[in-house]
Amino acid sequence: MRKKRVLLLSEGFGSGHTQAAYALAVGIKQLNPDIQTRVIELGKFLNPVLGPWIVSAYRKTVSKQPKLVGMMYRTNYKRSLNRFTQLALHRIFYTHTSQVIAQLKPDLIVCTHPVPNAVVGRLKRLGLNVPLYTLITDYDAHGTWTNAEVTKYLVSTPIVKRKLMAHGIPAARIEVTGIPVHPTFWTTFDRNEIQRQFDLKPMPTVLVMGGGWGLLQDNDLFEYMARYREKVQLIFCVGSNEKVREQMASNPLFQHTNIKILGFTREVSKLMDVSDLLITKPGGMTCTEGLSKGIPMLFYEPIPGQEEENCEYFIRNGFGEMLDSRQTIDKWLTLIQEPYATVQFRRTLMSKRNQQYNPEQCSRAVLQMMQ
Predict the structure, then answer these.
(1) pLDDT: is 229 or 62 the higher one?
(2) Burial environment of residue 251 by CB neighbours within 10 A (0 to 12, 13 to 18, 19 or more)
(3) Tell me: the pLDDT tens digits for 238-247?
(4) What distance in Å separates the CA atoms of residue 298 and residue 169, rounded to the nearest whole number?
(5) Cα–Cα distance between 320 and 291 in angstroms, integer?
(6) CATH number of the domain at 5-180+358-370, out of 3.40.50.2000, 3.40.50.280, 3.90.1700.10, 3.30.230.10?
(7) CATH number of this structure's domain 184-337
């Protein structure tokens, strides 16, 4: 008997969309090894020249003109992708996507980004007979996610479900599953072993993340943070941003045995386990990973739009607060030096997590469709 197949389509606009796709794929395989999964970043796969160029242009816009990104997000909040955009996607992707689907013969397609969601939706209007699930990877529901051909939406919270309903999506087509994280975030690693692996000391530790693109730009706050280096260990993850890594490595303030500057790493789960505080850009994926670990979070420089909505959700639910002053740094870097307070706070967050989040729920929702 042929094994059932799930095709997961993403895009490289930030790392979170594709991370969610891989996390869901691995979660499905762990629950049912007989299911075949395939993850594809559609633009890069189908157009290896133009796709990465578009992503690079978007990355520069996010970095240099975040207010413009926010204005575009809000202006088009209630709108699905317009006809011009759909025509452009048709020219670039539709025919090739149809060929890929015909070759892979999936029993279910899951999209973790609005672009492939629109592409597959159009193919369904043209006769494609494959169920389409759409996994929204933030704590907001922008209109570009909406598509009449979606069989079911998988969303992070009841709030996002209500927002989708306000866009006209029937409640029966929306399931609250949480955003999936890789199974490594479901377990706890041995702290001593992690410290040996990364040459870390057994002392209060802060993990600072700039997302997959390494957007660490507020040098004043990070330099002020470095003044705690005798009492607090600092781990900076700058992702693929080699320029930022070189700038920080050449700064005398960061040249200390208690400061680690890391590039891209697949060991974020371990680094969260060994850390007492996470300072991060509020991407939906990173925030959910922090939630799964029950680590307190400080959020800095949210991109106007979905990252602001992510911030609002996690702050409102007591999982973190905004990093907007030196006083906030003083407060938290002093707090984590008190072992009892640190343990108690993390226990509280783990209890909240257990009440609000089941890491397997999204995978189980997909598997239920496959039965």
Answers:
(1) 229
(2) middle
(3) 877 777 788 8
(4) 33
(5) 10
(6) 3.40.50.2000
(7) 3.40.50.2000
